[in-house]
Amino acid sequence: MSGEVSRFPFFHETPAPEGAEGWESMYPYYLLPREETRDWEDSRLWFADTMHWSRGVHPFDSIGAEAVYLGAGQNSTRIFVLPTSLGLDVRVQNGYVYIAGIPVTDPAEIERRAALFQERAGHYYANWDELYARWKTKVTEAVARMKTISFPPLGELDPPEVVTEARGRSTSWDIITNYHRLIDEFFLVWQYHFEFLNLGYGGYIVFFQFCRQAFPQITEQEVARLVAGIDVLAFRPDDELRGLARLAVDLGLVGLLAGPGTADETFAALAGHENGPEWLQAYEAARDPWFDYFAEYGFTHDQDTWNSNPAIPLQGIARYAVRIQAGEDITRPVERLARERDEIVAEYRDLLSPAERTQFDELLGLARKVFPFIEEHNIYVEHWTHTVFWQKAWELGDFLVSAGFADARDDVFYLNRFELDQVLADIVQSWAIGVEIRGRKKWADVIARRRPIVAALQARTAPPAYGIPPEEVTDPFAVMNYGVTTDRIKEWLGASDGTASTLTGIPGGPGVAEGPVRVLRTEKDLALLRPGEILVAPITAPSWAAAFSSVSGVVTDIGGMMSHAAIVCREYGVPAVVGTGFATANLKTGQRVRVDGDTGTVTVLEDPR
């Protein structure tokens, strides 16, 4: 058809934003589109991973793109041998992270890999509870080891114990060793991350495919609701906020929490109230570990946790407390969801033959068994591990300042991990010899040049995709987490002009809602949200759950049936459409829209006057 768009732009067709020329020098070469790999890159579909990196990444922060997709590739391609998909290739383009699924299309190879997958994945499915318990231990031990890492300033001399204990080595070498340990632990945890994740998606996909074949009329939303209503660790931080809100009501502290003051002013006011100390004690008890929880996804150094910015949890507590005081029920509707789930299961199960029911029961049991990991792993990895990792990275920044290398503690993030290794070697060797740091001016010039480049990259939004769409998207991670399906890509190509009055996406949370739009770009805008509005965002983080309690619906640019936004909306009973591609570009604050979480459509009803 004349004028039909069949592909997205190629990497090499997209110039650097003004002021960001030379951005490529900031990242390891293998993360960049290159002339020698152009044919390969032009033949792929690369979609923006703005779910995890919502803005252009600093040089050091690109370590996440390496670790994440190394772990995904190893487990998909080499360990569990997914039949129809290899790993996800990764590139950084104009500062943003893009990924491409690598499908397996040869029937003979798919059959060979399927046999291997059945054997290897079958071992995990058969021993899921035991292996999952061991997984939790492995990750928590890695986090504990990471916490022991330190980067103390270098003194004039090594301490006397180096001599009296005949150590034979300088304590300065601990700086190098600990840096390597930090990097190694980070990569190790991300390999653990994918040990179970694709198996979790795989268990759900097999059940999903059975349902679509057995019940041709069943919707994506109905299949998802068959595994809803399962309590998981990922909801614990929000449960802590609800508990603190109830306590605030009981102690007569709602007015103080809902007041206009800063977090410090609120804490001071609470400390001066006769019931305040009791509430503050409960708040402190909840902080470790539940407030080691990023307001976003924890993939960049400049994101707040609830502990580092207490205004975030205080805002959520105040929202809940005001509603409780007004007589509202803020409990998550777990019992209702479970009841509805069981009713739907019974209705569909009655349509099957005895043999089919047996298979249905087995697959449903597996889907429910693996589901908790799909959400819970975020607590262990993206929140608890990343909290410690970024704390240690900031400590490295302090070390660079103490050594006389850097002027500001955030200078460290304008170096990639390999450059930082060189800098630390320079600092330690120069200290050992007793001379000035040899590369101070060199790197000061580099950092000064990169600051405006990063700012220019972050001032631009990421195009949703580059390259040529495949005939079929088969990677389970792309489908279930990101919502990048074959049909969705076709719709993105047709809806990218920003003029569509109807957007289509993936059914996230069931139900239909109408209301005025509130477009939010980051968690820092959550205070603008008003009750009854439709929250529209590039992606929502699990930590936004308190906001979900007051909205009438949710719409996101990216996300699949098993994305955190979709799972949270289902568990909170909020109508949602995820993976629309262009909601934040097409919709404007104040527009009235209808969100149909059953069919995955968003319809503009009227524009604001």
TrEMBL record:
Which Pfam families does the UniProt record give? Answer: PEP-utilizers
Which Gene3D superfamilies does the record associate with it? Phosphohistidine domain (3.50.30.10)
> Which InterPro entries does this entry report, sorted A to Z?
PEP-util_enz_mobile_dom, PEP_Utilizing_Enz, Phosphohistidine_dom_sf
Q: Which GO terms describe its molecular function?
A: transferase activity, transferring phosphorus-containing groups
Residues in a coiled coil are none
Q: Which residues form the PEP-utilising enzyme mobile domain?
A: 530-600
Q: Which domain of life is it from?
A: Bacteria
| Record's protein name | PEP-utilizing protein mobile subunit
Q: Which organism is it from?
A: Streptomyces tagetis
